Amino acid sequence: MQRKQQLITDIQNLLNSYTGLKPTSINPQLLEFIDENTLLSIIDSLLTQKEQAKESDKEWLEKFKNHHS
Hints:
Distance between the termini: 55 Å
Mean pLDDT: 83
Number of domains: 1
Shape: elongated
Number of helices: 2
Low-confidence stretches: none
Strand content: under 5%
Radius of gyration: 16 Å
């Protein structure tokens, strides 16, 4: 159960790292219904989304810099 609690905390921290969004808290009772593999999958998905957003921001910045050079 301790591992699941840490995974839930990690998910909350990832969700709360987005700027401009209200803080997220996850009900610990969800631990009863979600297995570790699902929690790890959620974390992987959030990390992938953050990475894609960074890449998109980089592409936009490069286009902007090239356009204004």
